[in-house]
Automatic annotation (TrEMBL):
Family: Belongs to the short-chain dehydrogenases/reductases (SDR) family.
UniProt KW Lipid metabolism keyword: yes
GO molecular function annotation: oxidoreductase activity
Lineage, highest ranks first: Bacteria, Bacillati, Bacillota, Bacilli, Lactobacillales
Keywords: Lipid metabolism, NAD, Oxidoreductase, Steroid metabolism
Family matches, as InterPro entries: NAD(P)-bd_dom_sf, SDR_fam
Name of the protein described by the UniProt record: 3-alpha-(Or 20-beta)-hydroxysteroid dehydrogenase
This protein's record includes keyword NAD: yes
One GO term (biological process): bile acid metabolic process
Length: 242
Protein backbone atom coordinates (compact mmCIF):
# COMPACT_ATOMS: atom_id res chain seq x y z
CA UNK A 1 0.00 0.00 0.00
CA UNK A 2 1.24 3.47 -0.88
CA UNK A 3 1.67 6.04 1.90
CA UNK A 4 -0.95 8.50 0.57
CA UNK A 5 -3.52 6.16 -0.98
CA UNK A 6 -6.92 7.83 -0.89
CA UNK A 7 -5.54 11.21 0.24
CA UNK A 8 -6.18 14.57 -1.44
CA UNK A 9 -3.63 17.37 -1.17
CA UNK A 10 -3.15 21.02 -2.08
CA UNK A 11 0.46 22.10 -2.66
CA UNK A 12 1.20 25.77 -3.26
CA UNK A 13 4.09 27.13 -5.31
CA UNK A 14 4.27 23.73 -6.97
CA UNK A 15 5.11 24.52 -10.58
CA UNK A 16 8.86 24.09 -10.00
CA UNK A 17 11.54 23.53 -7.36
CA UNK A 18 10.59 21.92 -4.07
CA UNK A 19 6.86 22.24 -4.72
CA UNK A 20 7.07 20.29 -7.96
CA UNK A 21 9.17 17.66 -6.19
CA UNK A 22 6.53 17.35 -3.45
CA UNK A 23 3.76 17.00 -6.03
CA UNK A 24 5.56 14.26 -7.96
CA UNK A 25 6.29 12.24 -4.82
CA UNK A 26 2.73 12.64 -3.52
CA UNK A 27 1.26 11.36 -6.79
CA UNK A 28 3.72 8.46 -6.81
CA UNK A 29 2.53 7.62 -3.30
CA UNK A 30 -1.13 7.53 -4.33
CA UNK A 31 -2.42 11.03 -3.58
CA UNK A 32 -4.58 13.22 -5.75
CA UNK A 33 -2.96 16.65 -5.86
CA UNK A 34 -4.04 20.20 -6.66
CA UNK A 35 -0.95 22.03 -7.86
CA UNK A 36 -1.17 25.80 -7.42
CA UNK A 37 1.11 28.54 -8.64
CA UNK A 38 1.12 31.95 -10.30
CA UNK A 39 3.10 30.39 -13.19
CA UNK A 40 0.32 28.93 -15.31
CA UNK A 41 2.54 27.55 -18.06
CA UNK A 42 4.80 25.48 -15.81
CA UNK A 43 1.97 24.45 -13.48
CA UNK A 44 -0.20 23.21 -16.32
CA UNK A 45 2.71 21.30 -17.84
CA UNK A 46 3.42 19.55 -14.53
CA UNK A 47 -0.24 18.64 -14.00
CA UNK A 48 -0.38 17.19 -17.52
CA UNK A 49 2.78 15.21 -16.82
CA UNK A 50 1.30 13.75 -13.64
CA UNK A 51 -1.98 12.74 -15.31
CA UNK A 52 -5.44 12.20 -13.84
CA UNK A 53 -4.23 12.36 -10.23
CA UNK A 54 -3.29 16.03 -10.56
CA UNK A 55 -4.93 19.31 -11.49
CA UNK A 56 -3.48 22.79 -11.80
CA UNK A 57 -5.20 25.83 -10.31
CA UNK A 58 -3.68 29.24 -10.98
CA UNK A 59 -3.31 31.08 -7.69
CA UNK A 60 -1.94 34.22 -6.12
CA UNK A 61 -1.38 32.78 -2.65
CA UNK A 62 -1.79 36.20 -1.05
CA UNK A 63 -5.31 36.60 -2.49
CA UNK A 64 -8.24 35.55 -0.31
CA UNK A 65 -10.61 34.86 -3.22
CA UNK A 66 -7.97 32.72 -4.92
CA UNK A 67 -7.75 30.58 -1.78
CA UNK A 68 -11.49 30.08 -1.73
CA UNK A 69 -11.35 29.03 -5.38
CA UNK A 70 -8.46 26.60 -4.84
CA UNK A 71 -10.20 24.81 -1.98
CA UNK A 72 -13.56 24.70 -3.77
CA UNK A 73 -11.99 23.49 -7.02
CA UNK A 74 -10.04 20.78 -5.20
CA UNK A 75 -13.01 19.46 -3.25
CA UNK A 76 -15.30 19.63 -6.31
CA UNK A 77 -12.79 17.63 -8.36
CA UNK A 78 -11.56 15.12 -5.78
CA UNK A 79 -14.36 15.08 -3.20
CA UNK A 80 -12.43 16.08 -0.08
CA UNK A 81 -9.21 17.56 1.32
CA UNK A 82 -6.76 15.79 3.63
CA UNK A 83 -3.42 17.59 3.22
CA UNK A 84 -2.26 21.17 2.79
CA UNK A 85 1.37 21.96 1.99
CA UNK A 86 2.03 25.70 2.26
CA UNK A 87 5.15 25.70 0.11
CA UNK A 88 5.06 29.00 -1.82
CA UNK A 89 7.76 31.46 -0.86
CA UNK A 90 10.15 34.13 -2.12
CA UNK A 91 13.27 35.95 -1.00
CA UNK A 92 14.52 39.40 -2.00
CA UNK A 93 18.30 39.73 -1.91
CA UNK A 94 18.61 43.29 -0.56
CA UNK A 95 20.12 44.88 2.53
CA UNK A 96 17.90 46.29 5.28
CA UNK A 97 18.61 49.83 4.10
CA UNK A 98 17.79 49.02 0.47
CA UNK A 99 14.62 47.01 1.14
CA UNK A 100 11.58 49.12 0.30
CA UNK A 101 8.19 48.88 1.96
CA UNK A 102 6.89 47.42 -1.30
CA UNK A 103 9.63 44.76 -1.20
CA UNK A 104 8.83 43.92 2.39
CA UNK A 105 5.09 43.69 1.86
CA UNK A 106 5.57 41.40 -1.15
CA UNK A 107 7.66 39.01 0.95
CA UNK A 108 5.15 39.21 3.81
CA UNK A 109 2.17 38.48 1.60
CA UNK A 110 3.69 35.48 -0.17
CA UNK A 111 5.63 33.94 2.72
CA UNK A 112 3.42 34.69 5.71
CA UNK A 113 -0.08 35.89 4.81
CA UNK A 114 -0.45 32.98 2.38
CA UNK A 115 0.12 30.46 5.17
CA UNK A 116 -2.56 32.06 7.32
CA UNK A 117 -5.02 32.14 4.41
CA UNK A 118 -4.20 28.59 3.39
CA UNK A 119 -4.94 27.25 6.85
CA UNK A 120 -8.02 29.46 7.32
CA UNK A 121 -9.73 28.22 4.16
CA UNK A 122 -8.47 24.63 4.09
CA UNK A 123 -9.36 23.63 7.63
CA UNK A 124 -13.17 23.68 7.13
CA UNK A 125 -12.73 21.24 4.22
CA UNK A 126 -10.71 18.79 6.36
CA UNK A 127 -13.82 17.17 7.78
CA UNK A 128 -12.10 13.89 8.68
CA UNK A 129 -8.94 15.41 10.12
CA UNK A 130 -5.79 15.97 8.15
CA UNK A 131 -2.24 17.25 8.02
CA UNK A 132 -0.93 20.75 7.36
CA UNK A 133 2.73 21.09 6.48
CA UNK A 134 4.07 24.64 6.52
CA UNK A 135 7.39 25.10 4.75
CA UNK A 136 9.47 27.51 6.80
CA UNK A 137 13.26 27.56 6.49
CA UNK A 138 16.40 27.14 8.54
CA UNK A 139 16.06 30.95 8.65
CA UNK A 140 12.94 30.37 10.72
CA UNK A 141 15.37 29.11 13.37
CA UNK A 142 18.42 31.35 12.87
CA UNK A 143 19.03 34.76 11.31
CA UNK A 144 19.28 35.44 7.60
CA UNK A 145 17.99 37.91 5.01
CA UNK A 146 15.69 40.67 6.20
CA UNK A 147 12.06 40.01 5.31
CA UNK A 148 12.71 36.36 4.51
CA UNK A 149 13.88 35.54 8.04
CA UNK A 150 11.07 37.54 9.64
CA UNK A 151 8.36 35.76 7.72
CA UNK A 152 9.87 32.30 8.16
CA UNK A 153 10.00 32.82 11.93
CA UNK A 154 6.32 33.84 11.70
CA UNK A 155 5.46 30.62 9.85
CA UNK A 156 7.07 28.69 12.70
CA UNK A 157 4.94 30.57 15.22
CA UNK A 158 1.71 30.24 13.26
CA UNK A 159 2.33 26.51 13.00
CA UNK A 160 2.49 26.16 16.77
CA UNK A 161 -0.59 28.32 17.37
CA UNK A 162 -2.65 26.50 14.73
CA UNK A 163 -1.55 23.08 15.96
CA UNK A 164 -2.91 23.80 19.44
CA UNK A 165 -6.22 25.09 18.10
CA UNK A 166 -6.74 22.26 15.60
CA UNK A 167 -5.61 19.23 17.58
CA UNK A 168 -9.16 18.56 18.82
CA UNK A 169 -10.27 18.35 15.17
CA UNK A 170 -7.72 15.68 14.34
CA UNK A 171 -5.70 18.09 12.22
CA UNK A 172 -1.95 18.02 12.73
CA UNK A 173 0.21 21.05 11.90
CA UNK A 174 3.99 20.90 11.57
CA UNK A 175 6.71 23.04 10.04
CA UNK A 176 9.61 21.96 7.83
CA UNK A 177 12.86 23.93 7.89
CA UNK A 178 14.97 23.30 4.79
CA UNK A 179 18.55 24.49 4.59
CA UNK A 180 20.30 25.16 1.28
CA UNK A 181 18.33 23.30 -1.38
CA UNK A 182 19.11 23.18 -5.09
CA UNK A 183 16.10 25.10 -6.39
CA UNK A 184 15.56 28.09 -8.72
CA UNK A 185 15.38 30.39 -5.65
CA UNK A 186 19.06 29.91 -4.82
CA UNK A 187 20.20 29.85 -8.44
CA UNK A 188 19.41 33.51 -9.06
CA UNK A 189 22.01 35.40 -11.05
CA UNK A 190 25.66 34.43 -10.84
CA UNK A 191 25.37 32.40 -7.64
CA UNK A 192 26.99 29.05 -8.46
CA UNK A 193 30.44 29.91 -7.07
CA UNK A 194 28.95 31.37 -3.90
CA UNK A 195 26.81 28.28 -3.31
CA UNK A 196 29.74 25.95 -3.92
CA UNK A 197 31.84 27.83 -1.38
CA UNK A 198 29.01 27.99 1.16
CA UNK A 199 28.47 24.23 0.91
CA UNK A 200 31.85 23.75 2.59
CA UNK A 201 30.35 25.15 5.81
CA UNK A 202 27.57 22.54 5.86
CA UNK A 203 28.46 19.52 8.04
CA UNK A 204 27.28 17.13 5.31
CA UNK A 205 29.43 19.13 2.84
CA UNK A 206 26.80 19.52 0.15
CA UNK A 207 23.63 21.28 -0.91
CA UNK A 208 20.46 19.16 -0.69
CA UNK A 209 18.26 18.04 -3.55
CA UNK A 210 14.53 18.95 -3.43
CA UNK A 211 13.59 15.27 -3.16
CA UNK A 212 15.31 15.09 0.22
CA UNK A 213 12.91 17.69 1.58
CA UNK A 214 9.96 16.03 -0.16
CA UNK A 215 10.55 12.82 1.77
CA UNK A 216 10.18 14.72 5.04
CA UNK A 217 7.03 16.42 3.77
CA UNK A 218 5.67 13.01 2.74
CA UNK A 219 6.30 11.66 6.24
CA UNK A 220 4.39 14.54 7.83
CA UNK A 221 1.53 14.32 5.32
CA UNK A 222 1.13 10.59 5.85
CA UNK A 223 -0.22 8.58 8.75
CA UNK A 224 3.36 7.58 9.60
CA UNK A 225 3.55 10.83 11.59
CA UNK A 226 0.18 10.37 13.29
CA UNK A 227 1.45 11.53 16.70
CA UNK A 228 3.52 14.47 15.47
CA UNK A 229 2.08 17.97 15.70
CA UNK A 230 3.27 21.46 16.68
CA UNK A 231 6.82 20.39 15.83
CA UNK A 232 9.74 21.60 13.74
CA UNK A 233 11.45 19.23 11.31
CA UNK A 234 14.84 20.42 10.12
CA UNK A 235 16.38 19.35 6.80
CA UNK A 236 19.60 21.34 6.69
CA UNK A 237 22.52 18.91 6.65
CA UNK A 238 23.36 19.87 10.24
CA UNK A 239 23.94 23.56 9.47
CA UNK A 240 21.86 25.05 12.32
CA UNK A 241 23.27 22.56 14.85
CA UNK A 242 26.66 24.27 14.83
Amino acid sequence: MKKLDGKVAIITGASQGMGASHAKLFVNEGAKVAITDINEEKGTALANELGDQAIFVKQDVSNEDDWKNVVNTTTDKFGKLDILVNNAGISVNKSLADTTVADYMKIFKINQLSVFLGMKYSVPAMKNGGSIVNISSMNGLVGGAIGYTDTKFAVRGMTKAAALQLAHSGIRVNSVHPGVISTPMIHQGDSEAVIKEFAKAIPLQRVAEPEEVSKMVLFLASDDSSYSTRSEFVVDGGLTAQ
